[in-house]
Amino acid sequence: xxxxxxxxxxxxPAPASERAxxxxxxxxxxxxxxxxxxxxxxxASGVITQVDVAAPLQxxxxxxxxVSHLRACYPDVSWRSCLAQRMTRDLAHRMRLPNxxxx
Length: 103
What we know:
Shape: globular
Strand content: 35-45%
């Protein structure tokens, strides 16, 4: 639980796509998670495409914290997800993110 408070969130371009961006979750100079997303401020919509959190921290709330961070950074954006893995689908459900498998 102590690690949760000490994780720092950094914004970074995602290497997979020109449009994608990442939130890197860093704990003591080590990346312990990543949230990949795309945002269109012109149409006020965003999609979360991937959430990865290191196994020891998966139930610590870091995914929820990262999604909340995105909502705070982009308050006028309507978020949805295209998350397919069970853990990440549960996160999307808890955070009330509509599922958009075609995104």
